[in-house]
Design goal:
mainly alpha
């Protein structure tokens, strides 16, 4: 579990789970490791991800409302706007910008998840067993 825990701290929950399932452990051992990893980081990951998504969408909505040209911003990251984009509502444009910003939100989510888990009082399974 220590390896998966370190991978999770460095690269995120998905990478930690992937490292468990590609390991040579037996099926039952993998299930236990995955369960422990999700128990430690699952709620913290969701809290972090959802919080950052709310901030991101709110910021995108505020920018669209302020008149920022979202179709040209999306074009800069490789997303082409159709003719219907001009008639899309504020929420639709804000949502498109929010989804385009997903790669920007991932690194902070990965970096903050262990801190949030510690704030929630989550400990590795080995430490729980010692108590």
């Amino acid at each position: 579990m220590d390896d998966a825990d370190e991978v999770t701290k460095k690269f995120g929950l998905e990478a930690g789970l992937f490292s468990i399932f590609k390991s040579g452990a037996n099926k039952e051992g993998k299930a236990v490791q995955a369960k422990d990893l999700l128990a430690k980081y699952g709620s913290a990951y969701l809290a972090t991800s959802i919080s950052l998504s709310i901030v991101s969408f709110s910021l995108c909505y505020a920018l669209v409302t302020a008149g920022v040209d979202v179709p040209s911003l999306l074009a800069k990251v490789g997303i082409t706007a159709s003719s219907q984009t001009e008639t899309a509502g504020t929420v639709a444009l804000a949502y498109a910008a929010h989804k385009a910003a997903s790669p920007i939100r991932f690194p902070p989510t990965v970096a903050l998840t262990p801190f949030v888990a510690n704030a929630f009082g989550k400990k590795p399974a080995a430490e729980d067993a010692e108590e």
